[in-house]
Amino acid sequence: MRLLEKTGIIYHNFITQLKDININWREKMKNTLPKDFLWGGAIAANQCEGAYLENGKGLSPVDILPGGPKLRNEALEDVKKAMNTDYGYYPSHISIDFFHKFKEDIKLFKEMGFKCLRTSICWARIFPNGDNLEPNEEGLKFYDALIDELIKNNIEPVITINHFDTPLELTKKYGGWKDKRLIDFYARYCEVLFKRYKGKVKYWMTFNEINIILHIPSFGGGLVFEEGENKKQVMYQSAHHQLVASALATKIGHEIDSENMIGCMLAAGTVYPNTCNPNDILAAQAANRENYFFIDVQSKGEYPSYSKRMLEELGVTLEISEDEKKILKEHTVDYIGFSYYSSRLRSADPEVMKNIKDGNAFASLTNPYLKESEWGWTIDPTGLRITMNELYDRYNKPLFIVENGLGAIDKIETDGSINDDYRIDYLRQHIEQMKEGVKDGVNLLGYTPWGCIDLVSAGTGQMSKRYGFIYVDKDDDGNGTLKRSKKKSFNWYKNVISSNGDEL
């Protein structure tokens, strides 16, 4: 009897230990993300603030862009024409009036449990002409109030210094970033911000999607091309000026406050080869390098080895001084911020490439294995994990997903609800893959889905292309009350944050 009793006790203890191990293993597997992971959302001054001339603000590029994809594309292609055309309606002039409603919106962000908010500062609010010697105090006071409100609500400010917001006067007077004098104007602007918000803002990004200058040069660099100019030469020389400016900003930011984390920001999304044909693989590699080119410089401090041949074949000769090389080398970024919306597909076959389609500034072939959004963007959650691993393998610096989301048309039901299950599904799949990337070993600081509150689309000027957890009552023609209301995704994301991503 005693032997059987002892055997039973041993068996019982063994089963209990197995259960404990199983529970602990499950808990360990659930807790993929660190406790201090920065959950939040992302917006930009030029797409949400409005108040386009209030308190001494100068004009920004977005202020001359009309609503609607057709007219907006024309204006982006011909900035000179846009500066001299009255389109009647400009979405940015009021936008969603975040300038006056930010306290109301931050209250909703807090209710969702945001740990951080990624937003930007409008350069033309601080230096209306860009080259002013002294900053506009009224503009700074707005950001004082905004940043203080975030801190009061325990929301970490994550600030982009230039989010497609180079003052329009710098385009008129200097031709935008093609003129290297903008480096000094930008450095002056950065110094004001770093000093003003020392101890309040820790996370900074120098330029939003810096590689966009090659795809939408008027937005990315305030560029206007003259007849006969080598556009590639102008774009890459302008990009060089931005890279030097970014390194200077990193230098200034670290000198003013050693606690500052200064990052860069890339419009990311891995380019896949269309087939396993080696020529397709080379074509995809070249497309990826075109994007990584910028972050290679900002992260490694020098132009990559492949850039010599790449620039020669484009007919580009960069003017780079020894001082500039030194600045780039000595002042690299602390982390890599990036946006991810979709992967892309590339072929070396000219006949196949005739089928390429535009999508979010980047053209791509249709991937037969993937679905597309209402705006024709490829939906590829696994591509986020692939992109995370590629970036981390390449740079071995912390990553920060600062944009990701689904632009979609939302329907208001008769009871006032907005059942955006499609958005929940999109974000759930991407967060699942984000967690897989972290399990792969990627050091990830945080995740801020784009347009956490509905705002004006940068590319199309539409309000109907909605990303938010919060609905804003405004249509594509500017009509509406601007009333805020919660979508179904609001409470879903609130639960995601409170569970630190365990409950999706």
Automatic annotation (TrEMBL):
Q: Give the highest taxon in the source lineage.
A: Bacteria
Signal peptide residue numbers: none
**InterPro entries for the chain:** GH (IPR017853), GH_1_N_CS (IPR033132), Glyco_hydro_1 (IPR001360), Glyco_hydro_1_AS (IPR018120)
Hydrolase among the record's keywords? yes
Q: Which UniProt keywords apply?
A: Glycosidase, Hydrolase
One example of a Gene Ontology biological process annotation: carbohydrate catabolic process
In alphabetical order, the GO MF annotations are: beta-glucosidase activity
Identify the catalytic residues.
E403
Q: Does the keyword Hydrolase apply?
A: yes
GO annotations of cellular component type: cytosol
Q: Which PROSITE patterns match?
A: GLYCOSYL_HYDROL_F1_1 (PS00572), GLYCOSYL_HYDROL_F1_2 (PS00653)
- List the Gene3D superfamilies hit by this protein, alphabetically: Glycosidases
Q: Which family does it belong to?
A: Belongs to the glycosyl hydrolase 1 family.
Protein name stated in the entry:
Aryl-phospho-beta-D-glucosidase BglH
